[in-house]
Amino acid sequence: MDAEVTAKNTASLTMMALRAHERGGPERLVFEEAPRPVPGPDEICVAVRAAAITFAELTWPETWEADGIDRTPVIPSHEFSGVVSEVGPGVVDLTVGDSVFGIAPFNRDGAAAEFVVVPSLSVARKDATVSDVDAAAAVLPALTAWEALRDQAHVAAGQHLLIRGGTGAVGAFLTQFAHAMGAEVTVTVNSASAEARARRLGADHVVVTTAPFEAHDLQGFDVAIDAVGDDVPEWMYASVRPGGRLIVLQEPPSQELADKYGVSAIFFVVSTRRERLEELATLIAAGQVEVAIAQTFPLSAGKAAYESGSLPKPGPGKTVILVS
Ligand SMILES: NC(=O)c1ccc[n+]([C@@H]2O[C@H](COP(=O)([O-])OP(=O)(O)OC[C@H]3O[C@@H](n4cnc5c(N)ncnc54)[C@H](OP(=O)(O)O)[C@@H]3O)[C@@H](O)[C@H]2O)c1
Asked: What are 68-114's pLDDT values in tens digits?
């Protein structure tokens, strides 16, 4: 058993956390003392070591309310790695001291805190060879990419795949996983500096969209995935062969455009399934994926971490809060 966790188990009923008492952006966040959460049935409490940020989270309704009820004060940052510090009734497959990583439900308190309580099925064991920072940074984008390719697109070896935004947080994992699955991977990026990274991640063809490019050259793909996060351009629908699949991550697609080009257009939200997390844990532990970390901040500087979302990033990858 982890001695540090045991010590914390017997410690106070409070913890330090990053919280927002009113809806808004990073300016609302304060680092303060908060009640320490207690796990209910089928839940675990995790002593957080690293928590990764999805900046858009502060704009999502579920961050601020659950079932239409305001739930401020809220704790952000739902992607985490840490050590189980307490288990609730009914949890038999995890014990205190287990290293785990996972995703907290978005309509509950997150992991920018010393402790987070989550359903036990929303975590998987983390291999000791994988750092807490890498595990927290990978879990949401890698799981999204894995589910997009496996469960939504059903990508198979030899298929032609187009990824718009192939070096973003999700896009980088899409590129790596699709290459490993044996697909022929074409990606678009929006800077010349991202081109070399896209090739290193496994892209067979890279289109830099800042240079003049002919979207009608991008056609006949079995699957196209939009991982940019803005409005899906019409040429993405046109890039898919009739009967193929377009996967969009940011919002439900246009059925009108899907019908116009005879494609299946699919929106999905990542589901935190234990078996998928375990598959991911195996892939990351095998060293088969590159996890990019743009920057880290201590929990006490969590507000600055969120504020950094509107500044130029020092490099590709996730912003991670170091908790312990
Ligand atoms: N449905 C789900 O379950 C789910 C889960 C996770 C994420 N998402 C969504 O997926 C989207 C992507 O998330 P993310 O975290 O991967 O975002 P991200 O890290 O910001 O990635 C977006 C990437 O697209 C690039 N880009 C911007 N404009 C482009 C253009 N015109 N052409 C090509 N590339 C372009 C960006 O480059 P620069 O950084 O250089 O601008 C960046 O590399 C977001 O909408 C997010 O909300 C959905």
From this structure: 899 999 999 999 999 999 999 999 999 999 999 999 999 999 999 99
Q: Are 117 and 78 within 8 A, CB to CB?
A: no
The atom number, within ligand 1, closest to the CA of 270 reads 3
Which amino acid residue places its CA nearest to atom 25 of ligand 1? 165
Residues 214-260 have pLDDT tens digits of: 777 899 999 999 999 889 999 999 999 999 999 999 889 999 999 99
How many separate domains does the chain show?
2
Contact 278, 285 (CB under 8 A): no
Q: Which residue's CA is the nearest one to ligand 1's atom 8? A: 249
- Ordered DSSP codes for 293-317: EEEEEEGGGHHHHHHGGGS--SSSS
Strand partners, 44: 87, 118
- Nearest CA residue ID for atom 34, ligand 1: 165
Answer yes or no: pTM beyond 0.85.
Answer: yes
| Domain ranges, residue 218 | 140-267
Do 244 and 178 have their domain in common? yes
CA of 198 to the centre of ligand 1 (A): 14
